Amino acid sequence: MAVNLKETLTKLESLGDEKRRAHNAKPWPGNPAGASKLKQFGCAMGDIRTLAKKIKTDHALALQLWKTGNIDAQLLAILLMKPKSLSAAELDKLVRTARFAWVADWLNAYIVKEQPPADKETLRIKWMEDKDGWAARAGWNLTASNIGKGADGLDLSALLDRIEVEMPDAPPETQWTMNNTLMAIGIQHAKHRKRAIAIGEKIGLYKDWPVSKGCTPPYAPIAINEIVKRQG
């Protein structure tokens, strides 16, 4: 399905919904402003995925969609991109211009994680030291993923030291994936579980965040204990 930018934006706009726009604008853990200050149509995720399947891979269109700054267009762009066609500089720019939690997380899941291991590790280290909160979010996201895969080469004690010192004052978008890293350490590595839980209790991040019945809260001490229990 060959389409141009204007046609694609028109289609996305037709799929928009006021209730979805209002939902997106609400505060999220790690994204307290939601999409309240961003351009959006309010498309359902399923509709975006269906449209992506019809268009199929179109890297040039994807880059045009991304530049609009519209979060629905950026979500679609991620599904149309060729991850291996991005240079390190292009990928870095994408990470820094993602300003909504779902966009950032889709970018990490579908694009960043598909990069060659050596390139991904270089970016992980670079982003974790970055002052830009969204770049740092991506770096900590990769770190949490590495821990889930076995944590080869990672100094978990040093990571816990950093989290204990840095997470309380980190930007909200960075706190989210730092907290995921804390939980990953506590869940995957029994040797560090007690300390991970203690750090979570000390910082108290997301302690009072409301969640639906049956869902695991993002508060690390509860999440660690509940997930470990399930894995039992």
Uncertain residue segments: none
- By DSSP (H or I, 4+ residues per run), the number of helices equals 13
β content, as a range? under 5%
Q: Which structural class fits the helix and strand makeup?
A: mainly alpha
Shape: globular
Q: What's the assembly state of these chains? A: single chain
Largest sheet: none
Number-wise, the strands total 0
- Tell me the series of helices and strands, N- to C-terminal: HHHHHHHHHHHHH
Kindly state the mean pLDDT as a whole number?
94
Q: Rg from C-alpha positions? A: 18 Å
N-end to C-end Cα span: 48 Å
Q: What percent of the residues sit in helical stretches (DSSP H or I)?
A: 55-70%
Number of domains: 2
Structural write-up:
Helix 3 (45-55) packs across helix 5, helix 6 (88-97) packs across helix 9 and helix 10 (156-166) runs parallel beside helix 12 (190-203). The mean pLDDT is 94. Helices cover 65% and strands 0% of the residues. It has 13 helices and no strands. It is an all-alpha fold. It folds into 2 domains: 1-115, no CATH class; 116-232. The protein starts with a helix and ends with a helix.
Topology of this structure?
Layout: H1 5-15, H2 18-25, H3 45-55, H4 59-67, H5 71-80, H6 88-97, H7 101-110, H8 117-128, H9 133-148, H10 156-166, H11 172-188, H12 190-203, H13 220-231
Helix pairs in contact: 3-5, 4-5, 5-7, 6-9, 8-9, 9-11, 10-11, 10-12, 11-12, 11-13, 12-13
Short overview:
The chain has 13 helices and no strands. It is mainly α.
